[in-house]
Each structure stands twice: as C-alpha cells, then as structure tokens.
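Bug #77: duplicate submission created two jobs. Keeping one. Sequence:
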Amino acid sequence: MLHSHLTTLHSIALILQLLGDEDGDSAEALLAGSGIRLADLQHPDIRITTAQEMRVCANARARCQALGLLLGQRMHVSSYGLLGYTLLSSATLGDALNLALDYPALLGTYFELSLQRDGDLVWLQADGYRDLSELETFSAEFCLASLRLICDDLLGRRLPLREARFRHARPDYEKAYVASFACPRRFDAERNAFGFDASWLEQRLPLADPVTHRDMRERCRQLNSEFVHRQAWVTRCRQLLASQLQEPPALDELARQLACSPRTLRRHLHDAGSSYQTLLDELRYERARDLLGQALPINHIAEVMGYSETASFRHAFQRWSGLSPSRFRA
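Kept job's structure:
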C-alpha cells in the first residue's frame, strides 16, 4: 500500500486555529523547524511533506497532549477534497469505506487501513505505522478519530460503535476520547481499530448519486494516478540520496543517475511539492535523529553525516528541528 510523503496544509491550518495561533510569534513557534511560513497558509493548493507536517504536530503536541483526538474531531469528510465528495456520493457506507481504502495516497494516512469482518462485527483497522515513533500515539488518535468522523458525516448521523482499541497505553487524558469513542475502550491492544455492527456497511447514504459518483470516481482515479507518478519520483530520489547520504550527489549528478536532465528532475520534484534540498534535509534530519538516539558524541555524528565541522552540523540541526542537537537528545 502506498504511503504518501506529501500532504496538504489542512492539518497545519487546523492546528493553528485550534491553539489560537493563526498569526504572531506563537504561530511561528508552532511552525519552527518545518520550513512552512505563515504566508503559505494563504495558498491551499501548496503540498508539503509529511516530515514537515509531523514537525508542526510535534511542536503542537508539546502544548496539548490530546491534540490528535481534537484534530481528528475536526477533520470532516469535506477536508479530503475530491475524495471526500466522491465518498459522499457513494451508494452505501461499505462502498464509501472500500473506496477510501483504495486511495490511501489521497486519504493521506500514515497507516495501512483495512476492513476486517469478525462475525457480526466489522473492524476499521489502522496498522503498519511508518513514521516518528514518538508521535505514534498522536497519529493513531488522529487517524481513528478522523475516520470515525468521516463515517458520521457519510451517514448523516452518529455511527454506533461497539468497541475501540488502541495499541498505546491508557493516557492521562482518556476523558477526551469520549467525544469520538463513547463505547468500551481497550488500551495496550494488539491493534488500532474501532468496531461496529457489520449491517451498517449496507446502510444507504443520504447523498448517494450514481451519476455524480461515477464521474467523481473517475476523477479520483486520474488524480491518484498523477499523484502516484509524482510520488514515484520523490521515492526514487529519496532512495538514491539515502544510499549516498554521507557524500550526497549534487542535483546534476542525481539527475544523471535517474537518466534525466537536471531541468526535468527539478520539474518533477516541483510538481510533487518538493525539491532536491528539501529531500536532502529530510533525510539528513531523519539520520541525525537516529544517531542522536544512540548516544554517540555529537562531533562523531557530524562526521558520519558528512560535515567537516561540528558547528555546521549544529546549525543545520537547529534549522531542521528548532532545537540544538544536545537539547533534542535531552
């Protein structure tokens, strides 16, 4: 299943609205280390990387531990653009959910989603998390709360849940779960999922329209195809840069390895909402975080990362994360 490395600014805008920081110094602090500017929020068509999104989420969660739940409770189906409106025009809830699972890149999830039948129950399950381990709880809360809200929006009424399960431990703010999961809740479970009566999959949706749905579904297919094509360029560039991270090739050399011109490579990365320098910084930041977790001396980490001077590495890490290497480690 494709995991998107690109997403929209919608979650970032919600975070700033939720924490009351739509402008000023406090907003800048939330965006610190992400490379996102306040002015970017005026251009909803801009694509950002998931690494940028997660940087802002980490900044915001330091202020609000229940952030994932609060965001998920605001991610209405209309937040997903073309895909959201295609889901609304589906015939049944089951048709809509299966369609959403067909296009994880458009859904923008950090998980592998699936529907699992278990007798008279069906579980909407989120597995295979592949991002920052320190944000796994936040991501699971955000994912399941937003999926729950999507179901409610599609039905035009509350979907009765039988149970909700989470892989993480019971948090201190469990009361915040009630708004999304007013049902028995289990923590330290084997999977992240919520279950409901399988009969709801056959429930007709109030906004179902077969003609509109057929047209919208074709547009989703085309958009997904374009997105996957763009993502393929990003993925291949990341793979090549990651394998040569200590001495990364310049853009011209990377283009030669990809059998294209530098201009073509720039265009493909631009169309995907990225750039050579953005990808290189992301990979260096990921590698630096891993090395800092191994208690290696910072000067040794700088050398492994390909920096001739420790000070240059310190400045770069400060720019990526908003923290010095020593503060990040602490």
